[in-house]
Amino acid sequence: FPGWTLKANGSLVMATVNEDAAGTYTCTPYNSYGTMGPSAPTSVILQDPPSFSITPEKVYRQDAGRKLLIPCQGNTDATTRVTWSKVDPVRPISYSIEPNGSLLLQPVIKDHQGEWECSVSNRVASIRTHTQVFVLGTSPHATTSLSVSPGVKLANLSWEAGFDGGSTQTFSVWWV
Hints:
With 176 residues, this protein is mainly β. The chain is 0% helix and 39% strand.
């Protein structure tokens, strides 16, 4: 067929395919002594890669203790699978995935805050999208990137504030 090549090692390369390529194939090696018969059958299935039919918003803000439902759906192919995971979780947290692929956080807790990834996959490929969850009505999150630059009779402290929990926050520096 046009676009098909039989390699010297016996591999069949299908660079161009259409619906006619789908089916069951076997390979029968032989040489001047004959053959030991065909290989086990292998199936060629043609399928499009997955696609998103609904993607989550970039950011969600929800009060602690409430319910948050974040949609994510793939194409309607029966082999398409939707999974969710929290990116860089501090510890295991509970969440559930609805039959339609939506992420359900109920009740929303402080540990739900952060970046979440929705993955839609089938036999061909996986695609991903991300969303950010902010949990309001909680204590502030820890600061990051704390650094100290010492001087002769002084020290310069700097940090990046964590999420404020939805309320104004202040910082105190203690020294002993």
